[in-house]
Amino acid sequence: MSKAVFSLWHREIVRFLRDRSRLTGSLMQPVIFWVLFSGALNNSVQFGGMENYSEYFFSGTLAMITLFTAIFATITVIEDRKEGFLQGVLVSPVPRAAIALGKILGGATLGVGLAVIFLVLAPFAGISLELGNVLMGLGVLTLLAVAVTGLGFVLAWLMDSAAGYHGIMMLFLMPMLLLSGAFFPIEKAHWLISWIRHVNPMTYGVGALRHALHGEAQGCPTFAVCLIGTTVFAVATFSLGTYVVTRRSARDAA
Amino acid sequence: MTQPQAVAASGVQFAYGDRQALRGVDFEVDCGAAFGFLGPNGSGKSTLFKLLSTLVPLQRGAVSILGHSLALEAASIRRRIGVVFQSPAVDKKLTVQENLRYGGLMLGLGGAALHARVDACLDAAKLTDRRKDNVEELSGGLRRRVEIAKCLLSQPDLVLLDEASTGLDPAARREMWAVLRAQEGLTVLFTTHLMEEAAEADRLMLLDEGNVVAQGRPGELMEEVGGQVIEIESAAAQDLQVQLKSELSVEATLLDQTLRIDGESVHELVPAIMERCGDRVRRLQLAHPSLEDVFLQRTGKRFVVTAPEEPAKKRRRR
């Protein structure tokens, strides 16, 4: 099974690196978001006890990179199904769980890889990178990347079209990011928004990143709670991904 | 001496929601044989293929593949079969060699064994000199050979092909079959809607609306129809049918603006038909019965193929 997982994981990386537009888009989109939002709001707002907005939004951008990379990585599940590649894997001796493992680990690796490249810009946001917080940040990023890629995998596995997946992404995943505190603090928001924030697993991922990179995160749950929340999120989506893929049904023929 | 069986199926039924795709199919395939499923769109052959390739679970009936129960031992079956789907299962963004390499890794191969197997399959499919090419740059025929090479990686005892030659020119189709025939002892199950390809099978099963309408050696099936067949195309087929009846006492069957007359020695009618009704005849063909005639005789319908068969749209996942 490990060779099958490696095969699927490696294929994800190779395909990503060969697709220049995807590579450029995945790297540049969050950078542009960060630069534009920071340029517009740096002198206007101060959130979470941080010096400026670029510092506050830095962790949010990292979370956004993992989420967007997960979305684009898992959309290949639908492409693979349409193009017939997935059928070939489903009738091979590979345990079906290997498909979930290979795809989720592949997408998560890409997410962490791109986030690490963005991390180099941390000093421009006034964040000093030290070995300790970088290692903690990488650990949190890995957990978060597995969690969101697992979520994307489950949604993509259940979807029939890429257009439908984009619709779900805008309806479901983007609000998750917006209501996580990645862009702006929401602890004093309307009670309903505040409640959603508490049940939103991205809140804990963004919070854990802030704790890891800044040493503190005003308005976020404690680091321990954020870590536990993100770990539960990762384990749950990873398990769900493995579950949906191991069910055999007439749908596999589609 | 009785041949050992590669596949034995009895009472196989399958439904997509409330639409019955297979209605009790029975057949047996000898080891080393090429067995074809022939049928028009919606006949159930692709559903049968998906069942046999373990892609969908068996709903009703019993199937044994290479001695393993399809219902209980799908994993054991997958280790011994190779599958080529109608839609390509190779990755177009990768090279020929990468596709085979990833395929080998999925089978648990590694190191020298993986290299050796990839080389052997490239050689078998005559793709050694194209190994570095991206699959998306290859012609349809070459892509099919990559599929065949990939499905041979596991050294399967049974290969399943779903409309694998659709879209291939005759030369590419012959090359594909040459690669498969060169594998000693390999059993091949294939679905097709091409008569000339079906005629190459050792045994053939004709399907219509989920039912088996005929089964046997292609030559024997055609001999069973017997005699000769005259087909006449006419712009006024109904009038011509009446004229043939009244003037020549010939009973012709009208199907889609084409009149059919079958029986022993019907060739003797041709001069009289042309003399009396020649002005109404657009085309007249005299031939021995084909597999299409077998289908027509058994179902009363013409064998019509329109677009490539699409899987039934699922209701909701179960």
Structure description:
- The complex is a heterodimer of chains A (254) and B (318).
- The longest helix of chain A has 31 residues, at 53-83.
- Chain A has 254 residues and is mostly helical.
- Chain A has ten helices and no strands.
- The two termini of chain A are 25 Å apart.
- Chain A is 76% helix and 0% strand.
- Chain A has helices at residues 2-18, 20-41, 53-83, 85-90, 96-119, 131-158, 162-178, 191-199, 201-214, 223-246.
- In chain B, helix 3 crosses helix 4 and helix 5 runs parallel beside helix 6.
- Chain B is of the alpha/beta class and 318 residues long.
- Chain B is elongated, with a radius of gyration of 23 Å.
- Chain B starts with a strand and ends in a 19-residue tail after the last helix.
- Chain B has eleven helices and 14 strands.
- A six-stranded mixed sheet of chain B has the order 6-7-8-3-9-10, sandwiched between helices. Chain B has a four-stranded antiparallel sheet with strand order 2-1-4-5. Chain B has a four-stranded antiparallel sheet with strand order 12-13-11-14, with helices on one face.
- Helix content of chain B is 32%, strand content 26%.
- Chain B folds into two domains: 5-218, Rossmann fold (3-Layer(aba) Sandwich); 227-288, 2-Layer Sandwich (Alpha-Beta Plaits).
- Classes of the chains: A mainly alpha (254), B alpha/beta (318).
- At the A-B interface, helix 1 and helix 4 of A face helix 2 and helix 3 of B.
SSE map:
The complex is a heterodimer of chains A (254) and B (318).
Chain A (H helix, E strand, L loop, with lengths): L1 H17 L1 H22 L11 H31 L1 H6 L5 H24 L11 H28 L3 H17 L12 H9 L1 H14 L8 H24 L8
Chain B lengths: L4 E12 L2 E12 L3 E5 L6 H8 L7 E6 L2 E2 L4 H5 L2 E4 L11 H11 L4 H14 L15 H12 L6 E5 L7 H12 L5 E6 L2 H4 L4 E6 L2 E6 L1 H8 L2 E6 L3 H12 L4 E3 L2 E6 L6 H8 L5 E5 L3 H9 L19
Parallel strand pairs in B: 3-8, 3-9, 6-7, 7-8
Antiparallel strand pairs in B: 1-2, 1-4, 4-5, 9-10, 11-13, 11-14, 12-13
